[in-house]
Amino acid sequence: xxxxxxxxxxxxxxxxxxxxxxxxxxxxxxxxxxxxxxxxxxxxxxxxxxxxxxxxxxxxxxxxxxxxxxxxxxxxxxxxxxxxxxxxxxxxxxxxxxxxxxxxxxxxxxxxxxxxxxxxxxxxxxxxxxxxxxxxxxxxxxxxxxxxxxxxxxxxxxxxxxxxxxxxxxxxxxxxxxxxxxxxxxxxxxxxxxxxxxxxxxxxxxxxxxxxxxxxxxxxxxxxxxxxxxxxxxxxxxxxxxxxxxxxxxxxxxxxxxxxxxxxxxxxxxxxxxxxxxxxxxxxxxxxxxxxxxxxxxxxxxxxxxxxxxxxxxxxxxxxxxxxxxxxxxxxxxxxxxxxxxxxxxxxxxxxxxxxxxxxxxxxxxxxxxxxxxxxxxxxxxxxxxxxxxxxxxxxxxxxxxxxxxxxxxxxxxxxxxxxxxxxxxxxxxxxxxxxxxxxxxxxxxxxxxxxxxxxxxxxxxxxxxxxxxxxxxxxxxxxxxxxxxxxxxxxxxxxxxxxxxxxxxxxxxxxxxxxxxxxxxxxxxxxxxxxxxxxxxxxxxxxxxxxxxxxxxxxxxxxxxxxxxxxxxxxxxxxxxxxxxxxxxxxxxxxxxxxxxxxxxxxxxxxxxxxxxxxxxxxxxxxxxxxxxxxxxxxxxxxxxxxxxxxxxxxxxxxxxxxxxxxxxxxxxxxxxxxxxxxxxxxxxxxxxxxxxxxxxxxxxxxxxxxxxxxxxxxxxxxxxxxxxxxxxxxxxxxxxxxxxx
Length: 743
Ligand SMILES: Nc1nc2c(c(=O)[nH]1)N[C@H]1C(S)=C(S)[C@@H](COP(=O)(O)OP(=O)(O)OC[C@H]3O[C@@H](n4cnc5c(=O)[nH]c(N)nc54)[C@H](O)[C@@H]3O)O[C@H]1N2
Ligand SMILES: Nc1nc2c(c(=O)[nH]1)N[C@H]1C(S)=C(S)[C@@H](COP(=O)(O)OP(=O)(O)OC[C@H]3O[C@@H](n4cnc5c(=O)[nH]c(N)nc54)[C@H](O)[C@@H]3O)O[C@H]1N2
Ligand code: SF4
Ligand SMILES: [Mo]
What we know:
- Helix content is about 30%, strand content about 15%.
- It has 23 helices and 28 strands.
- A hairpin with a 7-residue loop joins strand 4 (about 95) and strand 5 (about 105).
- Helix 5 (about 170-180) packs across helix 14 (about 330-345) and helix 8 packs antiparallel against helix 11 (about 290-300).
- One ligand MGD binds near residues 203, 248, 611 and 683.
């Protein structure tokens, strides 16, 4: 049953433009309002923050911003409660196992000098690449860019990677190889123009809430909605066709759809002939992927697969949207290719209401994957191994080409190298690996082997308990810069307040470190604007070209789409118009995809599939949303979703404590018995730490091309522990500061 509008508002808060009597923050007088964007997900909703006495005290909807038109989800509504939170880090901290909370407050000079001394000591003893850096894409474009430069020129290490490696890299690798560019194919205003909207592996209503309203506009125009997910997610409850596939079987489902398109000749032959390559090999790969066969693999009835293929193949327009449910796999790249194959086969590219697109995750998930803090990348989505690309970027940076290190390890590989003792030092910013990487026990073991670890954050995340130095950085609303939304729209983030206490802007901390490392000449910045102007030039001519975008234009035009190669250029909203792709020959590439099973499959010892993901009121590793009272109230602890049939076999009822065990570990949590999940699968959201962390159970297996971990498939076993309250969940138990030997 689809939820009514009232139920949706009750469940998800004020999505809609209905302002409560007296306004959103009745009674709070603000000095000014700052037009900016939400600090959380990749939708990057426009919001007006109300500021009084250098504090954000509330918000107003920003109706004019075209993407969300004033709508916000519960996280956007409550984000302002972070900035004056008592847990904000106000001073640098140094590990002190003797003290009450494990740290002592130190001066900036002490914290930065110690960090620089450790970097020098470790690199002198073990080589440049023995010191690594991890970064994150909640950071704006300016910081993403300068971190790429900082790691290469100030640290001089090849080993820099980012948390998008856990997120959008499968789509990134697949898009670049098949289409020559890595960005959403369309602006979201194309969604209502589609006759069919096919959503696969995306919990739209909870994770991309504002996209729901775009899909509903399509439905209001008569579009058919297809959803593929092991769970009937809230938005999927409104689907015309639901494909409840087994976790890890997307390429079987999509391969069978291509098989049907070919068999029934629901193909766009002109498009295939004139604008693509590789069709024959892709067709050959799915020759035996019949719907009947796919039914056995996916658990989706063959008739439904045929119906999905018919709707996709016979409609004039159609949009396919995918997210991490499709991409968090050891075949994440292949899964995305299988989607792209469906788009290319039916000519659904470059026309209004036609496209195949990923939904980005983190706030700057799009921009943050373009400007050089990935281990294989230089700004403008250039390739760090390409001599021409290296020479161009060296000319912008004013350094010798040889000063730019080569390709380094990816995020999970860095942690593996730390575990093997090859990497000895780490600096991380905007990343909470203890909660977000698979196989928590392994991650903790690795971090405890580091000779030196420093982090930059505004709250002390669980990973911080493994750090030697904690540097207090800045919140989103304290810095100025740009971000790039899931549409590929570059938008402006405006500062509302200054960092509290002795906290500093993230980029100022890094510039200071660079000076102390003797590389200050490369980091002469006195504002983020200077970094943006340098980024424009550094990206010029790259596949993610921002050269024509200025801060003024962004404000005037309410965002500018990249690629935007010249100042007068309008920016390209819909890619591939005229069937022109960004590959060398201008053609879109089919890639042959055959189904292969996930890295771990169920057996008699571990007979249940586990998949993990998100809930609407919590965000990522939870460092931020677990500190915002109203969001905690909405979903305070992880719950294990179990189908009534599976629950019945174990005598489990809602609220009972259940123990879930995988080959990596075990956790106990309350059950939530729901009929909206496959009977062979359980779901646990991953936003909590310690012994509430879903990643205690997950598998470290990686996609060979994108190196994304297989967060979406593990094999587990399930036991009932007892009635509600029968297990003591003590989050502190796992994350106390342990004495660490001095190096
Ligand atoms: N509320 C909230 N919103 C967020 C975030 C958040 O933490 N909280 N994070 C942001 C970020 S960084 C990201 S990456 C996005 C993620 O956005 P989504 O990808 O939409 O979210 P997930 O919950 O990770 O997974 C989506 C769906 O995949 C399904 N799924 C699991 N296994 C499979 C499978 O094998 N195949 C298919 N087809 N589906 C499967 C799950 O049941 C789930 O409903 O959300 C962004 N928005
Ligand atoms: N089991 C399982 N695991 C998953 C996933 C899953 O679906 N299942 N999803 C994966 C995905 S898609 C993602 S994106 C990752 C996310 O994983 P992480 O990136 O580790 O999660 P975050 O919570 O974003 O951690 C970011 C940290 O940066 C801090 N931070 C945020 N903004 C800023 C800033 O502007 N400056 C500074 N200095 N710090 C900042 C926050 O306080 C937080 O401590 O998790 C992955 N892990
Ligand atoms: S979390 Fe995402 S959908 Fe919610 S208000 Fe922020 S940007 Fe918008
Ligand atoms: Mo993500």
